[in-house]
Amino acid sequence: MKELVKSSDLAIDLATAFDASPNPYVLLYPDLRIAGMNQAYLDVTHSRREEILGQPIFGAFDSGSGDDAPENVRQVRRSMQKALSTGKPDHLAVVKFSIPRDLPEGGRVFEDRFWSATHTPVLNRDGEIVMLLQHTTDITELERLRQMSAAGSDGAVSALDAMVGGGLLARAQHVQEDNRRLSTERNRLTEMFMQAPGFIAVLSGPDHRYELFNEAYRHLTDHRELAGKTVAEALPEVVEQGYIDMLDTVFETGEPVEGRGSLLRLQAVPGGPFEDAYVDFIYQPIREDGGKVVGIFVQGHDVTDNVRAAQRQKLMIDELNHRVKNTLATVQSIAMQTARSHADPRAFAESFQARLLSLSHTHDLLTRSHWEGADLRDILRHETEAHETHRISANGPPVPLGPAFALSLGMIFHELATNAAKYGALSAPGGRVLVDWSIADQTDRRLVVEWRETGGPAVAIPERRGFGTRMIERNVRHDLAGEVELRYLDSGLKARITVPLDRAVP
């Protein structure tokens, strides 16, 4: 209880001392609203406590606070904001304000007075700024004394003027103006630094501790906590990728290091999968006045999109070369096998042209999807559209197929349709072709296609295997790693094709 009483007495004593001080004090909230003031402040500003308490510091005296405010107001505002942003006291050496003064005969006039001000952040136990204390000292008499001394010296600089004016106030004003200009330039450079499209960071010391970094750098590093950490602490996965070694080399030798399209592998979460990025970068040494390296300036660009675009382009060119070679080999095989089956040049030309058109149809279909693949139903329609498609019934679910699979199946459908038009169901007016397909065994998917002809002439097992039959069997068994069964029934040809869907097609 005695301790509580003593604590309470101490608070009362401090409040009394605060209010009794001859120097003006005002206590502000972080948003610059007035939280409290002493009597000296009320006397100087000719205001009443209840009128200004809780009001914005600049609005309470109609002094404005925007960019169009007077320069003295902007000086005070900049000093307050600097103290709030840095957490450290900020000083204004000289600032001039017009203060109202009551006349003995009544009325009020304004007189110019000069002040020195200090803005001190007040922190709580967690180090957070909860208040801002403004302490001002009236230095008007010093300035007037300097002016009087200067006026009576016929232009000569007096000792008093040199000491009080040139030696104190004038130098303080010059320093304050220089600081203001440097602060403005620094803020402008910092803003440019933070908004730069490329990533930038400043590393300090031999352990490469983050001192400054911009938003592009935070984005590159998945917005990790970087402030105050070393590169190895913030990005442990890059230690084994050689980047720390490069930083060490720059710090020890003072020679810059540059990288082009370098692979950077980061983990979104510790122990998680790596995500690849590619960067152009340069590490440049930062030297102190004596030439000693004290840090490293990191600058670069994320070129992941460019590198991947180049990789895709190379892959597409390689794939195009592969497809052209395969297509030429297919054309050569078709030509050789067709020539063996047709002694008559005209018959050879017709059969060869038809097979080339079949290959072209599937190519057109794949081109529309940028060679990502095609659906089975679309392949069947393209390969049979020359044979009265209303006589061909298709029934089955959507089955997306890759490019190689689509080309092989397209050639199979072409041969079956051509054979039906020459000898089977499509050669008779009432003949029809029924094509059904389904997916069997979802754990090891297999495509089952059944081609059934009906209403055509009776068919018999051919005496020799023609090129069409050999092509179907080769495409199914060799290219698609499947099985094919051809049955020649009185009702027409029946073909059953079974191929695995999840096997990579060569």
Please explain how this structure is put together:
The chain has a 5-stranded antiparallel sheet, sandwiched between helices. It is elongated, with a radius of gyration of 44 Å. It is built from 14 helices and 17 strands. Helix 12 (376-384) packs parallel to helix 13. Helix content is 43%, strand content 27%. It has helices at residues 2-20, 39-45, 49-52, 71-86, 140-151, 159-195, 215-220, 231-234, 243-253, 304-341, 345-368, 376-384, 403-422, 467-479; strands at residues 25-28, 34-37, 90-102, 108-123, 129-138, 199-204, 209-213, 257-267, 274-287, 293-302, 374-375, 392-395, 400-401, 432-440, 446-454, 483-489, 492-500. By secondary structure, it is an alpha+beta fold. It starts with a helix and ends in a 6-residue tail after the last strand. The longest helix is centred in the middle third of the chain and has 38 residues, at 304-341. The model is unreliable at 1-5 and 155-168 (pLDDT under 50).
Percent range for helical residues? 40-55%
Number of distinct helices: 14
The end-to-end distance, rounded to whole angstroms, is: 90 Å
**Biggest β-sheet description:** 5 strands, antiparallel
Question: What's the gyration radius in Å?
Answer: 44 Å
What is the mean predicted local confidence, pLDDT? 79
Number of E-state strands = 17
List low-confidence stretches.
1-5, 155-168
Shape: elongated
Strand order of the largest sheet: 2-1-5-4-3
Estimate the strand proportion.
Answer: 25-35%
Specify the oligomeric state: single chain
From the helix content, strand content and strand pairing, which structural class follows?
alpha+beta
